Amino acid sequence: MSTLYRHWEIIDRARTGKFMEEEDFLPKHFSPTLKKLIKKYEIKYDPKNPSPTDDAMADRIWQAAWDLFREVGYYNTDSHRIIEVTDEEIKEALYMASDQYVVGGGKDARVMRHRSVEDPEPPFCIMSPDITVDEKYHQSMCMAYLKEPLLDGLCGPILEETFGHLIESGGPTEISGCIQHIQNQKMAARLLGRPDTFMVAVGTAEHDSGQIAVSNDEWGVQKTDARLVGSLTEFKTADTLLNRSLHYAQYGCYTGNLTGAIYGGWCGGSEGTAITTVAYSLIGLVIHGAMFNQHFPFHLNYVSNTTRELLWPISMAGQALSRNSNLLYTSNGFANAGPMTEMLFREVAVHAMVSTVSSWHLWEMASTRNKYRNRATPLEARLGCEVGHAVARQKMSREQANEIANKLLAKYEDHAADAPMGSEYHECYDTAKAVPTVEHMDMFRRVKDEIAQMGVEFPY
Amino acid sequence: MSLEKLSKLVEAGEAEETKVLTEQLLKDGIDPLEMIETLTKTMAHVGELFAKLDIFLPEIMLSGEALTEAVNILAPYLEASGGREIKGKVVLGVVKGDLHEIGKNIVKLILETNGFVVKDLGYNVDSLTFVKEAESMEADFIASSSLMTTTMPRQLEIIEILKSKGIRDKYKVVIGGAPTSQLWADKIGADLFCYDAKSAPELFTAILADK
User: Fold this and answer.
1) What is the dihedral of CA A440, A446, A450, A453, to 10 degrees?
2) B61 contacts A169? CB cut-off 8 A
3) Pairing relationship of beta strands A110-113 and A158-159 according to DSSP bridges
């Protein structure tokens, strides 16, 4: 059970809460409060350890995140009011949150459970390219991801065009594109014999109308699937977003809370990014009634999270959430390099390894800074999820993950700013059969061997 | 009490102390133009620190606020001596349907601290509003940001409205935002793709020189 029993009361505060001008909310309210809490709880970034082992600091980050949410609240840009919650409401929501959910249907159903730090149970693996693709490759790419053995859930590529028309957010083309998106995804799942695979859909919908248009248990997003509701950077929402969480609840599907705290932005550095990420999980639970939280903290300049200043907050946030709650949360990788480059494979391996030992489930993998059309393939997601399964099954410690992460970081970290863009999907895959090319597979195996030699015990 | 101290106060984002010292330095007979030149260099330095993320957004925003305090005091004196150079006038906003504005806010700050006058239209801005506001302020630039692929077509819509009104050549149309690219700029006929905030003043200045 989620917190939706309070949904109307919480949402009502978007109309009755404390008034504040939007231009004051972040610089005069959010950032100073966060800065104060970093100091109060003595949170200190440690660049030498991308996979840290400081349990006490993880607990302090949790407390700082709790205070941040309670003291700052959540700002509605449409009403200029702050939604505030009490300690009692947060405690109640955490008590009521389930530590596991069954998602997907029939033989394709999966259980997503709360993970502990250094949990021997493999992470739940959601795969996603996270980018846009040409209309002609959309279904092929959906099929290519669904061919991945470790896939527990799919978030398909995003359409920019629908039957030759540019998709415009909020307009009729978006509604059409969203229907096309979910039908391509479901058709691919049916053709592959995994018809009831858990899906998080549809990324093509930027506007609430697009999401609402695809709620249909016969041909659209089913009740066994999940939908995402985002936040505006940072700690802000709007009616179009609140519409979504209410609709998802009323329709009956699962809700995921999508947030990306920005390193270098209003959060400041790694310390603030860790605290904000944890606080977003509380927001997801209490405000949106989310079953899981989908976090992608990222670097303001690189738009990635595979360098150490982002790995540290990802790891600490996961540990803080695991030790102090029974929530579910996925770690969404954002790489600098593009497909069919050794750098991308190393980036996804580090992201997945650090995330897994820190209690996260996996959401892999946005490549090429999540910016360029067609630049993502399932193979990088495959490597990330294979690493996740491996390090969980071998009970890898955070210390060992730290050692391997530092070795791999040494190979790519200096190239974060000038990472290679790699190739597009159709250059890495046979798009008709939705299988990788020989060249792409060779590179995958080469980097996998390199990582295995460092101590990752792949099951196959 | 010196220009050096004023520079440090602005860098540290101490708005109130900046205000007090600016007034004091004026009383001491320091040339307002010299003060502005010093603070312009200070903000360029702060901008470089931010570009490398040696400092973060809250810090550069505070520096910007401190600079504004100083500029507000110095403005009347600068007007009397011919005024501060204005490098260009910009209408800036995030396109309709898009609620993400952090990038736009950084660009605004960097442009303003480098001598541009910016009218910030906020986010979720109708394409026609960009055009009307540009006409109203007699802008040199119409700059729009889009973070989502499905809101990028609104950048094209701005250009199409300018063409429909027969005023396309009156403005330099600038586009930016995470999913945008030079390819997209070329496709829709924008004058400039602004790939990051720190490059904005240089790029805007260069393209205006070509006008």
Assistant:
1) 130
2) no
3) unpaired
CB atoms under 10 Å from CB of A203, counted, come to 24
Radius of gyration of chain B (CA): 18
List residues bridging with A362 in a β-sheet.
Answer: A125, A331
Residue B125 DSSP class: B
Same domain, B142 and B113: yes
Pick B100's closest partner by Cβ from A166, A232, A240. A232
Strand partners, A75: A82, A236
| pLDDT at residue B83 in the model | 65
The pLDDT of residue B196 is: 86
Interface touch A206/B151, C-beta < 8 Å: yes
Beta strand A153-154 pairing with A429-430? unpaired
Write down the domain spans for chain A: 100-453
Q: Hey, what's the torsion of the CAs at A349, A352, A354, A355, to 10 degrees?
A: 170
**Burial (Cβ within 10 Å: 0-12, 13-18, ≥19) of residue B72:** exposed
The pLDDT confidence band at residue A124, using thresholds 50, 70 and 90, is very high
- Chain B interface test: which of A168, A209, A275, A276 (most B C-beta within 10 Å): A168
Alpha-carbon span B44 to A41, nearest angstrom: 34
Residue of A nearest to B53 (CA): A264
We report the CATH number of the domain holding residue B32 as: 1.10.1240.10
- Inter-chain CB pairs, A–B, below 8 Å: 75
| DSSP-derived pairing of the beta strands A198-199 and A153-154 | parallel
Chain A environment of B150 (Cβ under 8 Å)? 160, 167-169, 174, 177, 204, 206
- Its pTM stands at 0.93
- For residue A1, name the pLDDT band (cuts at 50, 70, 90): very low
Q: Is the pLDDT of residue A2 over 70?
A: no
Question: What is the phi-psi region of residue A201: left when phi exceeds 0, alpha when psi lies from -120 to 50, beta otherwise?
Answer: beta
Tokens of B47: 């901008």
Cα torsion at A460, A454, A387, A309 (round to 10°)? -170
Residues of B in contact with A369 (CB under 8 A): 178
Which residue(s) pair with A239 in the sheet? none
Q: What CATH number has the domain bearing residue B204?
A: 3.40.50.280
Check CB contact of A269 with chain B, cutoff 8 Å. yes
Please tell us whether the domain made up of A100-453 is placed in CATH 3.20.20.460.
yes
Contact A31 B102 (CB under 8 A): no
User: What's the token pair of residue A59?
Assistant: 């607990």
Q: What is the ipTM of this complex?
A: 0.91
Average pLDDT for chain A: 96
Considering its fold, how many domains does chain B have in total? 2
| Contact residues, chain B to chain A, C-beta under 8 Å | 51, 53, 56-58, 61-62, 96-102, 148-151, 153-154, 156, 178-179, 181, 196
Q: How far is CA B65 from CA A282, A308, B117, in A?
A: 32, 31, 15
Residue A277, judged by CB atoms within 10 A of its CB (0-12, 13-18, 19+), counts as buried
